Amino acid sequence: MANIMVVEDETAIADLILLNLKLVGHNGFHVGNGNDVINSIQEFKPDLIILDVMLPGKDGFELMKEIEPLGIPVIFLTAKEALTDKIKGLRLGADDYMVKPFATVELIARIDAVLKRYKTSNNVFVLDNLEVRLDEHVVLLNNEPVDLTAKEYSLLEVLVRNKNIALSREKLLEEVWGFDYVGDSRTVDVHIQKLRKKLHLEDRIKTIFKVGYRLEVPR
Fold it and tell me: How far apart are CA 74 and CA 97, in angstroms?
């Protein structure tokens, strides 16, 4: 699961991409104006950006110059099909360049390929004295291993991969316990309390009134 920013001024195209991202398990969010992109990056911390070139406000090539130093992978998705535009986009630091119209299955495949290339640099989450090695399923607090149950670890991983995003209890049940779980949402509350206590995250895992929970990390 990855957080993916879709920078696209055509709402219908953005909605189609977001739908397909959700179907394969990613979290997608839409930005429609180039002037809003950098602030949105700071707020949502995307793992990958799908970037149009022709945008209101700053265009995609301008934005790429600001995004490239941040180390976030970018796939251009644009109607600009000239070879010179493709070369320009790639030279600015984009990881891939796709031309509209496009097949969503190909876009998803390219997203997965780019994310796979970046996986080795994105598999460790550090917050205060906590370290989560996602590939190894290892949790360290003050450099000492912490024993978590399978469900506690899965819940932590969902929170980490959706950091700074409010998740409903129903969403957490779906992600951790699955669609066929027959219990109620109090199970989530119990496991959240255990994570807070075991990992000293009382000030980091916030209760969102009438919604659920959010893992807050510095932006």
Answer: 9
